[in-house]
Amino acid sequence: MISSIYGIKGVYKTKVKASYCDNCNSSYEWYELIPIVSYFILRGKCSHCNQKLSPLLPLLEIVSGILFAISYIIYGFSYEMIIMIILTIMLVNIFVSDFKYFIIFDKPLIIFSFLVLILKFIFFGFQTFLISVCSGILIFLLMMIIKYIGDSVFKDESLGGGDVKLAMFFGLLLGLRLSIVSLVLGSFLAFPYAIYSVLTGKEKEIPFGPFLISGLYIVFIFMDVVNNFISIIF
């Protein structure tokens, strides 16, 4: 039920456990990790220290389950269904980790990147696999250039390293054209939040990852429409 994404206190100092309470640092047993059910059995509290758990936890689990089911209903057991499950997991995790802790973990990105490449090879062959690798590298280099220019202009970090690595995943999954569309869409989605943050002065750092992954999610779902639109324009 409670993934390590919700227990990140001291993440840079200690190795992140699989599932634990970020208040008392106690690990959860397997029967305390049953989605939705465990939250209510534990009455919304840690079984070790009685710290209240966020009601966001079961809500995210419900949303994830619904999105998993919709993926199967729409695509059946297919490449698209597997990718949708991967994107749903990434969407939920990045929303929580980046909004709350301003962190995008490397390990999930690495695992899902390798998984996408394996799926590309199995379903589409070596040529598509190679194109995906090249696209990922090019998008990564592009984002590094943008980051370098932004850092130089603003004299501060303009893009987080996690955002750059996430963009590389875009290239691996969607290729160059759709990756750029996803990044642009993610930027537009982030714009209202950025304006709000500037006007209120509540946050100096803007969590860009949730908006980027949302852009990727939307573009993947409407990939055919986006491709047709690009073809008409160019």
How would you describe this structure in keywords?
8 helices, mainly alpha, 234 residues, globular
Give an account of the 3D structure.
The chain is an all-alpha fold and 234 residues long. It folds into 2 domains: 1-54, no CATH class; 77-233, no CATH class. 68% of the residues lie in helices and 0% in strands. α3 packs antiparallel against α7, α4 runs antiparallel to α5 and α4 crosses α6. The longest helix is centred in the last third of the chain and has 40 residues, at 161-200. It is globular and about 60 Å long.
Work out the helicity level.
Answer: 55-70%
β content, as a range? Answer: under 5%
Number of extended strands: 0
Shape: globular
User: Radius of gyration, Cα only, in angstroms?
Assistant: 19 Å
* String of helices and strands: HHHHHHHH
Largest sheet at a glance?
A: none
* Residue-averaged pLDDT: 83
The total number of structural domains is 2
Model regions low in confidence, pLDDT < 50 over at least 5 residues: 1-16
**SS element count, helices:** 8
The computed structural class is: mainly alpha
Distance between the termini: 47 Å
